[in-house]
Structures are given as C-alpha cells and as structure tokens.
Amino acid sequence: MKALAYSTEVPITAHAEVVVVGGGPAGIGSAIASARNGARTILVERYGFLGGMATVGLVGPFMTSWDIEGREPIIEGIFKEMVDGMVAMGAAIDPADVTGFSAFGGYHRYGHEHVTPFDPEALKFVAQEMVLEAGVELKLHALLIDSTVHDDRIVGVVVATKGGLEALRAEVVIDTTGDADVAARAGVPFEKGRPGDGLMQPVSLFFRVGNVDDDAVQGYVDSHPEDVDFRAIVRRARDEGGFSHTKDHLTLFRTPRPGEWWANVSRVHGVDGTDGADLTSAEITGRRQVLYLVQFFRKYVPGFEDCTLIDTAPQIGVRETRRIVGEYVLTAEDVLGARRFPDGIARVSFPIDIHDVKGGGGFFEGPREGPYYTIPYRSLVPLRVEQLLVAGRCVSATHEAQGSLRVMPPCFAMGQAAGTAAALSLETNVDVRNVDVQLLRRTLQDQGALV
Ligand SMILES: Cc1cc2nc3c(=O)[nH]c(=O)nc-3n(C[C@H](O)[C@H](O)[C@H](O)COP(=O)(O)OP(=O)(O)OC[C@H]3O[C@@H](n4cnc5c(N)ncnc54)[C@H](O)[C@@H]3O)c2cc1C
Fold first, then answer.
1. 180 CA distance to ligand 1 centroid (A)?
2. What does pTM read for this prediction?
3. Model pLDDT, residue 228
4. pLDDT tens for each residue of 285-316
5. Distance (Å, rounded) from C-alpha 59 to C-alpha 54?
6. To 5 degrees, how large is the angle CA 442–CA 447–CA 449?
7. Which tens digit of pLDDT belongs to each residue from 69-115?
C-alpha cells in the first residue's frame, strides 16, 4: 500500500541543467566539473555538509592516488585541488610525502603507499568553498525520495526537505548517492552483494582515538615487520580470551594530528545499507563495539595504553549496496589484469579489498599486469534510462571490482568525469549515452585529470 502519490503532487521549485544527488566524493567531483564546464548545476545532499563517507562516516585516510608501485600519481584533477586546499590549511599531508607506509599506520601492505591523511572538518570547508566557487547551487538537508521519468528519460527528482516535498527539474541527473537511490527509483536494473547469496561487505562504525604514543606504535611496527596489520596481537588476545570481536586484524591509521588515530575496526555483518531497520540495529551494535574496542586497544596495542575516545562517526560506514547495471560491467579480471579501456575516464590502482561478508578475514589483491586499470565511461551509463549518469561506489561493476573502485580518490575522479560528460552532452546537444568519449577524455586531461 502506498501512503502518498507524491510524484504528481509536489511543487516544482527549481529547474537546473544538471542535478547531482549526493554530496560525497563522487558528488563533489561531479558538481564542480559540471558547473565549471558551463552547466547550471544543483547539488543535493541529505546532510548539512559535504564529504559523504569522508566526513559523515569519518572514513580516512584517502586511499592511494598513486600507481600500485608507488611511482607516480594516477589521480589528480579535482581530487588534487581538494587535497592541495587542505594541505595549504595544514589539515592534510600531501600523498607525495606519505611513503614508507608504516609511518602512517600499522597497515603496511602494498597498495597503501601515498595515502592522504586529512582532517574531515577541513574537507567539509574546502569542498563547500570549491563547490560554491564553481557556481554550484547547494541544496543541503534535502533527501532524494523519488525520480521522475517520462518515456524512459529522467526529467527530475523529488526531495524531502524541512519545508516539505519539492520537485527539481533537470536535463541531466547524476546519481552520486553511493546507494544508486536515483537510479533504482528510476527503474535502472541493479545488483546487490556477491553472486549466489547477495551478501554484502560488512558495515563499520569509524571512530577516532587520541592520546596515543605515536613513537611507541612506530617502534612496535618497525620491530615486528612480521605482524602485518597487528594480526599477531589479535591472535594473542584471542588465545588469552581477551578478544571476542570478529575482525582478524586492526586497521589503524594516523590522522594528520600527532597522537590521533582513525580506527576502522568495528564490523557488523549481514546489513543491507538500503534498509532502515538494518541500519538502525547496525548503529547500535557498532557503538557497542567501539566501547569494547577502546578497552581492548588500551590493554593490548603498544602505544594505545592511555588512549581516549574522541568521537564516533555520525553515521555507520556502508561499503556496498546497489550497483547499477550499465553499458559495461567492470570485472575482477579487468582490475587484476590492469586493463585499460579506450573510453577510460579514471585510473585506479587500489587492490580489490573485500572484507569477508561473514567472517573476520578478507580478500586483498591488486592489479598484477600493470600499475593501474581504468574505468570505462560505459560503466557510468546505466541501461534503460536516458539522461542519467551514475558515479562513485555504485557504478556498473561486479561485487569484486567494486571492492577496488569504491575508495575515495577514484570516486572523486569518476565524479569529475560524470560532471564533465553531463556538461558536454548539453553543449554538443547529444544524450549522455552518446557523448563523444574522446572529446570527454581530452577535456578531462585539459582540466588536470589523468585518464
Ligand atoms: C567502513 C569503510 C571504510 C572505508 N575506508 C576507506 C579508506 O580508508 N579510504 C578510502 O579512500 N575509502 C574508504 N572507504 C570507501 C569510501 O569511503 C566510499 O566508498 C566512498 O566515500 C564512496 O564515495 P561516494 O561519493 O560514491 O559515496 P558516499 O561517500 O557514500 O557519498 C554519498 C553521499 O550521498 C548522500 N546521499 C545518499 N543518499 C542520499 C539521498 N537519498 N538523498 C540525498 N543525499 C543522499 C550521502 O549523505 C553522502 O553525502 C571506506 C568505506 C567504508 C564504509
């Protein structure tokens, strides 16, 4: 039973050329690129600030933006501008300077050179100012609840705001909600989870701790190169009956501030991040886990003896939900084979990183045949619905390939490509599906992106 037939009854409050829905890494990239390339652009975000998982999920650092061997940058453009803005404020560390990875975390495996530690508060500010400077109209506190589609063309969206429901009209809509909310409501086919049982990666409540003795942690990491990701510490604690949590290792990263660390250690299984009831129980479990984990760190992790909890993320971190089915579905073979596509619009080197959907382990394997792979434009173009593009972690990819492209630098890069494509489609008067991809690639390169 439907409570309200809202699509037909809500007032139209705006008419933009491009409406971007979702203000995370992909949405920031999309909105800035669209506006800079001349399209009247609105950016819709449900919270009161931008950043997506980087701010509301307290997720960090940005994973690597360099190739798999750590030789040169592969993601620049708007991502780099944002990082440079934060570095200038003293609120991020330039990835060029983050070498010898164990200096920034216990997580010292390949694929983690040249990560970018940053302060989420600085990102909120820098993203907001860059978006406004580009001429984007910001619409915060607006939750997408429906897509308006006529004859298989998306013509707008419906959002719920404090003042009521509003319809926004658009020539092109870009879905950067992470969950493909716009695409799903528009009738685009999608998949969820792994083949067979549809299970998705666990969700995790990020938290930050302070008062950590960085030198003591560093001393332990340097003197125990065999204890990758603190696995030996977890094993010892388990043997002593001191660790009941499911994760087999500790993902701990230094923030740009001395003595302050991000902890990506909580883990809740069996959650569908598009289901309200699942999200509610995951928040409750995640918060309980954090309290437990802080006690555990104090007892077992060298340097964390006197650590204090600074904060938990305002929202639990969701790694994967819907993935649209687009004109091309990126696969694990593409990632591991370091495949480069003629319509490649972003480079990625981060390994396939799948946190076990049931247990405490995971899969972690990077491109083998070359230093990076590319994401084809076709993975941003959904089947069935015209004038819609999708960017970020919900693009057209398999469960495995999504485990690689989901990290934040590629999401910024995909966003920049989607926003540029939307503006080019309007300028050249073709549907987004038929944008001249070589013109798109040249435009991206001219504007500082690496394709
Ligand atoms: C636990 C965890 C750990 C991770 N660790 C790292 C890491 O260390 N480094 C790294 O680089 N990446 C990491 N990632 C991956 C990364 O954070 C995300 O995959 C990435 O942020 C996805 O970017 P996005 O723009 O596609 O989506 P998101 O960052 O999720 O942004 C989506 C935005 O859309 C908004 N939105 C959603 N639905 C609606 C709606 N209906 N209406 C209006 N607005 C809406 C959201 O509020 C949000 O602002 C991690 C992710 C998780 C969950």
1. 12
2. 0.97
3. 83
4. 999 999 999 999 999 999 999 999 999 999 99
5. 5
6. 80
7. 889 999 999 999 999 999 999 999 999 998 765 556 665 566 778 99
Domain definitions of the chain by residue range? 6-96+120-196+322-446, 207-312
Per-residue pLDDT reduced to its tens digit, 251-283? 999 999 999 999 999 999 999 999 999 999 999
Q: Which atom of ligand 1 is nearest to the CA of 52?
A: 49
CA 178–ligand 1 middle distance (angstroms): 6
Ligand 1 centroid to Cα of residue 394, in Å, is 10
Residue identifier of the C-alpha nearest atom 51 of ligand 1: 319
Q: How far is CA 374 from the centre of its chain?
A: 17
Minimal-distance CA residue to ligand 1 atom 30: 178
Ligand 1 atom nearest to CA at 181: 41
Q: Is the dihedral of CA 110, 116, 121, 125 positive or negative?
A: negative
Please give the helix or strand (H or E) that residue 298 lies within, else none. Answer: helix 276-300
Q: Which two tokens stand for residue 263?
A: 């902890």
- Check pocket membership of 53 for ligand 1, CB cut-off 6 A: yes
Which pair of tokens denotes residue 119? 């302060």
The response to whether residue 403 sits with its C-beta less than 6 Å from ligand 1 reads no
Please tell me the distance between residue 138's alpha carbon and the centre of ligand 1 in angstroms: 18
CATH of domain 6-96+120-196+322-446: 3.50.50.60
